[in-house]
Give the backbone structure.
Amino acid sequence: MSTDTPAELAQKALSIRRSIIAMLAHAQSGHTAGALGMADVFAVLYFAVANLDPRHPDKEDRDRILLSNGHICPVLYATLAEAGFFEKKDLYTLRQLDSRLQGHPHVGSLPGVENTSGPLGLGLSQACGLALAFQRDNKTNRVFCLMSDAELQEGQVWEALMFAGKYQLKQLTAVIDRNDIQISGSTNEVMSLEPLKQKLESFNWQVLEVEGHDFGQLIHAFHAASQTEYPTALICHTVPGKGVDFMENKFEWHGKAPTKEQAEQALAQLEQEPDD
Amino acid sequence: MTEKIKTTRDGFGRGLVEAAQKNQLIVGLNADLTDSTRMSAFAQQFPDRFVQVGVAEQNLAGVAAGFALAGKIPFAASYACFQPANCWGVIRTSIAYSNLNVKLVGGHAGLATGEDGATHQSLEDIALMRVLPNMTVIVPADGEEARKATLAAATHQGPVYLRTSKLETGVLTTPETPFDIGRAVLLRPGHTLTLVACGVMVARALQASARLEELGMSAAVLNMHTIKPLDIRALAMALERSPYLITLEDHQAAGGLGSAVAEYLSQQRKEFRLKIMAVKDTFGQSGQGNQLLDYYGLGVEQIIHTSQRVCAFNNCRSDSLNMLGLK
Ligand SMILES: Cc1ncc(C[n+]2csc(CCOP(=O)(O)OP(=O)(O)O)c2C)c(N)n1
Ligand SMILES: [Mg+2]
C-alpha cells in the first residue's frame, strides 16, 4: 500500500478519525483520546511504510504491526477498514456480542489484527519474539510495536527493551505514543518516565523523537529506523483527542465514548481539511 | 446507611473510607485505576495515606507487602485481570507465604465487566487466590455487603482478596444483615434444593428462587460470600434440608466456588447431587454484562431449568445415584 504524499495521508487520517468517532458513538463505550491522537501515525505506518496486502492479510513476507496498548483499537480497526481488510460497516459492531471487533484486539478474530492486547505491557515482548524469530530465519520482515507512554510504567516493557538491545533487533521499531496522558492525569505527574530518551538509549536502542502529526517527519523517521543496526524507538509527541477541540489534551477522554451530540459536533470539526 | 450502594465496587469505596477513619494504619495503593476501583474518595480524604504506583501491578503488590512489613494495613486495588492475574507470583511469595496483612482488591471481575471484552473479564481470580495458603477470599453480593466486607478485611489479621464488580446488583442485603468472614448467609429459606451463590450471581439466584416458588419448588439461597475459608457448616445444614445443590459464580468452573464446594462434598458421607453453574472452560467476549451472563449459561432461566433437572433425580433409585458417583 503506497499512499505517500502528505496531502493524501492527511485525507486518510481524517477519514480514520471520522470512523473512530462514529464507531465509538455507536458502541457507547471505548477509548477516544489515544485513538484520535494516533490516527496520523497509523495512516503513515499502514499507507506509506509497512509492506501489507489487505487482500492477502496473511502473506508470508508482510511486515507485522502489533498493537500493545490495545485500548486504542478503534484507530486500528478504523485503519484496517480504511485499508480494505474488511468492510467499514463492520466498524459499527464494535464491542457488541458476537462481533469480530472485540473491545480489545484478539488475534485470529479479525483480518489484520496481529496480536492480542488490552492488559498493558505485553506487546513489546511479543514483538521481540517475532523479531528474533525473523532474525534467526534470516527474514527481513519489519516488526512495529505500537505502544502508549503510560504503558512504559510496566516492568515487563523494560525486560523487553533490555532483550531487544541485547539481541540487536534492528528489524524492530517501537512506536511510543508520547501524549502525556493516562487515566489518572498527566503521565509525567502520575509516574514520570523522564528522561525517557536517555533511558531508552541506555538500553541500546536508537531513539528518534518526532512530532506525531507531522507526516514528513514520521515518514523520515520510519525510514531512519530501517537504516540502523539497533532496535529503534520512535517517541511520537501527539495530542490526545487530536482534531476535536473539546477532547484535545484532556485526560478525561482517555476511556470515554462521545454521546450522539458530542459525536455530531466532533464530526463537524472533522469535515474541514486538516491544516497541515 | 443513607443512600443505597449500587455496586460492590462502590461498597468497597465506602467501606475503605470508613475503615480508614477508624484506623490510621490503613493505606491505599493503586495502579492508575483509582477511580474505577473506587479508591478515589479515600485518596481525596487521605492524600498522605494514598500511593499511586502507576501502571505497574507487580510493583503494586510488592510495595503493598513493604507497607505491611512496616506495620501498615495496605489496601492495594486494580482490576482482577491485572491483580492478581499479572502479579500472582509476587502475591504468592511476598504476601501469602509471608502471611502479610495485605488486602488485595480485584475490581471489574467476571463477565459482568462487559464491553471491554475477554482480556478484561477475569474468570480465574478466585481460583488463583483460593489456591494460596493463608489467603482469605471474599466475593460480596451487593454494595452493602462489600462495604461490610471491606471493614471486616481491615480488622482481619492476614492477607485477604476482595473481588468486586462494576455491575449493578440491586439491593440484596441491609445494614442489619450480619457479615462475618467465613459465615455464609441464608438469604432465602427452602427445602427442595439450595442455590449456593457468590458475587453478582446472588441476585440472579434470588430471582430464580422466587420464580421457582411459583413453580412449586422451594429453593434456598445461600450467599457464600467467603470462598475461603468455606462455610462447611452452612453446607452441612443445606444437605440436612436437601441433597440437591447448585453453585453459581461469574468465574470459570475450574477452581472457583463450585470446585471449593465439590472438594468439601467429596470428603463427607452424605448423599448429594451437585451441579456447578459457571463459565465452562472458555474465554468471554465483548457484550453487555448481564447479556454475557445469560449468554454463557448463567441466566435466571437457566438456573430455573437446571434446578428442575437436578431435582428430577428425586426419583432415581439409590443404585443409579451410585452409578452417577452421587453417593
Ligand atoms: C496491565 C494493565 N493495567 C491497567 C490497565 C488499565 N488501563 C488501561 S489504559 C491505562 C493507562 C492509560 O494511559 P496510556 O496507556 O498512556 O494511554 P492513553 O490514555 O494515552 O491512550 C490503564 C491503567 C491495563 N489496561 N493494563
Ligand atoms: Mg498516554
Chain A touches chain B at residues 27, 29-30, 70, 94-99, 101-104, 106, 116-121, 150-151, 153-155, 182-184, 190-191 (CB under 8 Å).
